[in-house]
Amino acid sequence: KSVGIEVEDRFARSCFAMYAYGDKVTGEVGAFNSIHDVAGAVTLSAKGASANLSPNTGNAGMMAYSGGKNVIYNAGSVDIQVKGGTLNYGDSAMKACGSAGQVSQEMNHVHDIAGKVSLGVIGGKASGMYASDSGSNLIENTGSVEIAVDGSLHSYAMYATGGGVNTITNNNGNALVVVIKATSGSVRSYAMFADTDGTNRIIGGDGNDVISLKGDIHAESTGKNIIDTGAGDDRITLDGTVSGDFRLDAGDGYDIL
Fold it and tell me: What are phi and psi of 234, to 5 degrees?
């Protein structure tokens, strides 16, 4: 079996395929959405064409806000596609936003996926994984991960700010395969962008990991970007400029950079 959710509105302020809103004061998970035990594909699609100048709204496949939580697990594959207007400032496949100054535990979690996890975003400010104000997005234990973003204003495959954390990892002993492509028609495109205590992490294991990033890697204002592939014969390709706090550890093995 498979599961598909599609939302589209040419005039809506925001379109979300999965939306969870919690209690921003206590930080307790007040809303929880789960899709699980799906032998086939899980597909999420959100399309909204209206202009939106707020980074914490826009369109998203998975939106966790102020303590909310969305989870997809034990599925054959996951495909999240988001398309917004060319002036949108908040189009993301996975978006976890806290409330500044409040306790928060918002999270989007995709884990134990047999095949590929694909994130695709086309819009104004396009982000594959966007985490702000202590929010977190986690993709864990998958066959492979592919992120493609194309923004007319900005492109960020992984964007972390305000203590937010984005993580792609395999901790089940299998090799981690990650392909990221960030493109933009007029401005710089970022495979990893972190600022204000935000953290982006790609963490492999003991297998022969393959990491391919097209787009700049940049950190500022105490943000950091981390690639740690652990042991194994790993291949790491970085196609873009690197600046700010960037930490690369390929571990033991015959590695190629």
Answer: -100, 150
Q: Say if residues 24 and 99 touch (Cβ distance below 8 Å).
A: yes
Q: How far apart are CA 185 and CA 176, in angstroms?
A: 30
176 by Cβ neighbours in 10 Å (0-12 / 13-18 / 19+) ranks as buried
Q: What is the mean pLDDT of residues 171-182?
A: 94
**DSSP secondary structure of 211-249:** EEEESEEEEETT-EEEEE--SS--EEEEES-EESSEEEE
Model pLDDT, residue 198: 96
What is the value of pTM for the model shown? Answer: 0.93
Task: Yes or no: say if 114 and 75 are a contact pair by the CB < 8 Å rule.
Answer: yes
Q: How many Cβ atoms sit within 10 Å of the Cβ of residue 195?
A: 18
User: DSSP strand E in 13-135: where?
Assistant: 15-21, 32-48, 59-65, 69-84, 91-97, 107-132
Determine whether 157 is exposed, middle or buried from the number of CB atoms within 10 Å of its CB (0-12, 13-18, 19+).
buried
